[in-house]
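By convention, each integer encodes one residue's backbone shape. The lines below illustrate.
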Amino acid sequence: METITKSLAETKQLAADFINELSPGVDRATVVALRGDLGAGKTAFTQGLAEALGIIETVISPTFVIEKIYDLPLGSKFKRLIHIDAYRLERVEELVQLGFADLLSEPGHLIVIEWPERVADVLPAELVNIDFKFIDDTTRSISYGH
């Protein structure tokens, strides 16, 4: 499915609609891989997911800390949102050292990973890929499928 968003608000609404359709994994975490160039809307989309999941703190890309874990409110279909930015990782082993296998093993986790191509070797085969394309200052093309 491809959608053109023409504002930050539309990108966040698309994220909210997406999360409403997404079901938690049965035996492992749900992984959403966000692919696209710098400034293409990956973090804005993650902010929309976080808001739709009830996270009230400001969500920024964890570029320098690599991962940020948010506990979700009781009653949410997921227990935690794990936001990972693999942009600065030199080797896939760096993600492994952060306990990625343990995060992946928990069905209540929603793992959103920016720059997934940098750590593709440790990502599960079953994930949702979302592709972002910068069109102009306010317009993005966002497409996803399983």
In short: The chain has one domain: 2-145. Residues 6 and 136 are 9 Å apart (CA to CA). The beta strands are 2-5, 30-35, 67-71, 80-85, 109-114, 128-134, 140-145.
